[in-house]
Amino acid sequence: MAPEMDQFYRSTMAIYKSIMEQFNPALENLVYLGNNYLRAFHALSEAAEVYFNAIQKIGEQALQSSTSQILGEILVQMSDTQRHLNSDLEVVVQTFHGDLLQHMEKNTKLDVQFIKDSRQHYEIEYRHRAANLEKYMSELWRMERKRDKNAREMKESVNRLHAQMQAFMSESQRAAELEEKRRYRFLAEKHLLLSNTFLHFFGRARSTLQNRVLLWKEQSEASRSPSRAHSPGLLGPVLGPPYPSGRLTPTRLDMVRPWAPPPLFAPPPIPAPATAPWGPRPPPWSLLPPRLPVYAAPLGRPFLPGAASAPPWWLGRRPQNPYADVWDWGWGLD
Amino acid sequence: MAPEMDQFYRSTMAIYKSIMEQFNPALENLVYLGNNYLRAFHALSEAAEVYFNAIQKIGEQALQSSTSQILGEILVQMSDTQRHLNSDLEVVVQTFHGDLLQHMEKNTKLDVQFIKDSRQHYEIEYRHRAANLEKYMSELWRMERKRDKNAREMKESVNRLHAQMQAFMSESQRAAELEEKRRYRFLAEKHLLLSNTFLHFFGRARSTLQNRVLLWKEQSEASRSPSRAHSPGLLGPVLGPPYPSGRLTPTRLDMVRPWAPPPLFAPPPIPAPATAPWGPRPPPWSLLPPRLPVYAAPLGRPFLPGAASAPPWWLGRRPQNPYADVWDWGWGLD
Question: What's the gap in Å between the CA of A268 and the closest CA on chain B?
Answer without folding.
Answer: 15
